[in-house]
Amino acid sequence: MSARRLTVAAAVAASLVVGPSSPAAPTMIDQAPPRQLVQFGYVKSLTAQGSRYRLRFDPALWLSGETANQAAIEDGAIPPGDTVPNDYYIRNESPRLLTFRVPRTAKVTVLTHQGRGPRATKIAVAELAQIVKGRNPKHRSLYDTLNSLGYWLRTTVDTVVSLQQQYQP
Fold first, then answer.
1. For a 10 Å CB count at each end of the chain, is N or C smaller?
2. Which domain holds residue 12?
3. Number of folded domains in the chain?
4. What's the rounded Cα separation, in Å, for the pair 33 and 52?
């Protein structure tokens, strides 16, 4: 057993009080967080810092199905008995931002107009940084000219692996 797993197991076991009415303490914790996390939210800033970028990200919940309907009713966005349009609802409970490191090699996809509708277009992190500032250095036909669409952020600990812009009708 690794030292990390043993330390976690000992900490959890030490925090439990085992008595006649409580279940037996676990003998080992064999759970680790996923290697990568994926979350939805909004890119608020993306600034160069040395050999990488610093991302300020506003996390939100992308909900669908019954979860979206119930959340929208609870938030007063739709009346009871209604359903959310396009089967999704975004709940953004807090304006508090998270900070992530973004290597220049992170994969970035934005939506552009090409032919019959929006298309996923791969771009460099440096270009996204300019787009977030309201510029369009490559004069792309951006689907989101107001930078109001959210992104799916894939991270490993505090480092971004990829950013993918989410289509919203």
1. C
2. 1-32
3. 2
4. 25
